[in-house]
Amino acid sequence: MSLITTLARMEAVRDGRARPVATVRHRHLSDRPLVFVPLTTAGEAGAPLGALVGTDRDAPRLLVVPQPRNRDLRFAFLAELAEETLPYLDSYADAVDLEERKETDPETGKKVPVQVELCADAPQLLVPSAAGVAFVRLLGRSMRFRRTADQDPDTPYPAPARVPLLGRWLTHYGERSRVPGSSLLLSLTELLGRHWATGQSNLEDQHLGSLLAWIDPPAGVTGPEAALRAESARDAGGQLLCPPAGPATDPAFDNKLLAPAIARYDAARAEVGGGVAGGEARLRLAENGLRELIASQLRPTWDALWHGVDLLRELPPGERVAERWKRDRWSFTGHRDRVRAGEPPQPKRDDAVTAAQKLAARETAQAQLEAQEALDDPLVMAGRRLAGEAFAGEVTEVEMAWSEAKVPRPRPLVTVVTEDRPQLAEQVKLYRVMADGRTQTGEFAGAHAPGALVVRLTGGMGRGKTPEPGSVPEPGDRTCWTLFEHAPRGGPELPDAESTPWTHGGPPEAVMPGPAPDPVTEEDYL
Amino acid sequence: MTGTDCVDGGPGTAGAVHGDGPFDPSAAAARATDAILRDTLRGAHRGVVVDSPPGAGKSTLVVRAARELAAAGRPLMVVAQTNAQVDDLVDRLATADPDLPVGRLHSSDPHPYDPVLDAHPSVRASAKVADLAGLDIVVSTAAKWAHIKNVEPWRHAIVDEAYQMRSDALLAVAGLFERALFVGDPGQLDPFSVVGADQWAGLSYDPSASAVTTLLAHNPTLPQHRLPVSWRLPASAAPLVSDAFYPYTPFRSGTGHGERRLSFGVASDGSGPDRVLDEAAVSGWGLLELPARRTPRTDPEAVTAVAQVVRRLLDRGGASVSERSEEPVPLTADRIAVGTAHRDQAAAVRAALSGLGVRGVTVDTANRLQGREFDVTVVLHPLSGRPDATAFHLETGRLCVLASRHRHACVVVCRAGVAELLDEHPSTEPVQLGVTVKFPDGWEANHAVLSHLSEHRVPWRP
Questions:
Q1: I need a labelling partner for A462 at 20 to 30 A (CA). Which of A7, A127, A370, B161 fits?
Q2: How close is the nearest chain A Cα to the Cα of B147, in Å?
Q3: Is the ipTM above a cut-off of 0.90?
Q4: For the stretch A245-255, what's the b/e string if a residue is b when 16 or more beta carbons lie within 10 angstroms of its beta carbon?
Q5: Helix ranges restricted to H, B284-328
Q6: Burial zone of B199 (CB within 10 Å; 0-12 exposed, 13-18 middle, 19+ buried)
Q7: Whole-prediction pTM value?
Q8: Residue from the list A359, A427, A492 with its beta carbon closest to the beta carbon of B193
Q9: What is the 8-class DSSP label of residue A254?
Q10: Segment (H or E) for A212
């Protein structure tokens, strides 16, 4: 945790209210996000219990699995989820812009410009917490390899038609959310935690209710009081007043309310199976009871999530957020194309080359995100300055100088007076944003006096012997120099998967890497 | 550990350096080196792995292997991890054999390599690999090699500091060579990633793992050797470092007790820094313990204490005697290093040193001190003044690097209460399926070092 975040958290404790740690919004927020609040069954990995899903905050769609251990009911839930989600995803697939991109011509091997489609906007999925993101991944994994009756008439328990496709999309969104700064799939706790510091620990910040309590407590109550209430206050029946944001449920709810309700449902279902008179009505009653019960757990989280969205929308977006969102649009477009081209679902595990490529891309994204957030937000930059990674100050002196080369280049020496204490050594590279938005490079050339730092400009001044007008700061200008690059580049190209070297096990097997699936046992049909 | 251990007889337990029969460090080291060269030059395997504890002559081995491969008419590429390592290696190669044609492949940045290399007539430096074609040896960083495409693969490569190289970096360069000698120190800092890589944990080719881990996972039969003698660490330090960080692959010091001595021309003034220096001069270790307190990372008192120890070290006219010279050699600033865990701590120490008028002392983080050697080191303990012990601060390699850079003595500056802090923060890293658990873990190694240091404790209230 950086010093400035520590300070913000201490101030939050002192004030009893969260402190902002950003002055702009650092993630893209769609005008029409799809909000997904899932609940899962305790002790049953990957068995959803219910969900609220939709784009309209006043009319979420409630999906419930009355008996989570029943495979057919689970499939029915997933089919309904696909019915709600896929049209939303599809609605972004056809509005496209044309972009020019360089691609390698397979015949000549040369890079040639080609026109490609880029979706004009992309669908955004919001979940309450980091555990919700993990649940999206889990659902994706559990669905994408399912076979439908169309694909394989012999498959036992064929999946409903669109379920495997939803699995591929959720997998894509889950995987994309691992890229720093990406916004296709976001959790509210992470979003709010990026913009506010509370007086509680990071672990406690995972609780959406208590996080919101610190950020926007009800009138007349302090943050810690409201957070305590959100976390642990219970009604006379022993139920939490503010149910957890899921996907895990509260054990008291499971034991006292959910288990009896499911038992009533099971009993009614058995009656229907046994042809008992009035069983149908009791089954409907039991199912409605379960729907109400699960909705009572989901609705507070749904409202809290939208409350968080409202708070975030009050912040203006950072300047470079759209640039990062464009990469999300590329990601969405790329997966759209793979689905349209009939490619198989994402493999179970990445091969060596894919894993290395993903890691490299994410490290680049992380470096870019850190730089862009600082450039977009003076408060973030203040943190970097405090950490010695940047400095800001007034230019007091500019001395023209040139490089010692056949064709001398301008290398003006700019003195910047600052109270910051950057971690500088001779020839450390420095960067600043110029008035026209380009980045100017420089290097540290010593200090006249403590706090009077000399920067030798090395770039951004055009090609001539004299610098272009406006490219050299003038005495009286305020400049902010960073020790980090503004647009860090990615690493080298990796070999193709087919030429994976011997050190990494050689080329992956052509089809479906990894061991054969576990044999089906009787337990699979319980 | 799998593979063959080629050190005949083994060096025995590291605790008993002398006295249990004739142990000839030179002979043991020579046997190990011969076996390594035999496997490298004439072995049937595509790879050879050499584990080298701190100061065991890894660079010497690399230089020798490179020269013998070149002499056998097998041009080779050498992969190191940083530009400083590459420059150092090229300098050593050219010094060892002034006629050997060596290429230094470098980046196209300004000041891409150490100008020292220009003094060697047989060294050619270029940013283009084509300019270096036909040279016996071409040396560069892994990052630069990764950009080389469409060249005839080298028949042989040496990968230096292979335990600090990440698996994905090896993936990017492994297509350039047919077979390779991998050399490194398994006890130093593991490579790391600034983003999460948990999703690949347990895969044999986890891109965030070390290159050697991936290599051995896919090629478990490769011969593995290790160098049995540390020439750098004094007899006072080798047993501790060996026991704490290499419990299953012990090593010994090349010198015995009393062969290295540190003395001061000026007597102690009785202050904490002077007393801890006297203790370190006698025993090889010193712990300057400040009162317990929770502090920011750049704890001003601890930073000042570090700077004062260095200042007194220079002021008191330190002189060292070692196997290198009979006559006492004055301890100069360039033979002293200060090691910290964080860069801001290093910056704070630099500022404090320049405030005391000290110049020329190396001050850096553990990461950047890897592979370096000094006479005396002063270490700001990674856990000093902390309220918690995170995985970063507990990392075994970090402490190992800091505790194994010195030829004579190591002074650790620390706030009291670290043992209690450790007990309050047992390791809680999740266990990942398929990932080999590293022994010892940082928690245990920290306790081992701390309990040894406590025997050389000098409490001081500044």
A1: A370
A2: 6
A3: no
A4: bbbbbbeebbe
A5: 300-315
A6: middle
A7: 0.89
A8: A359
A9: I
A10: helix A208-215
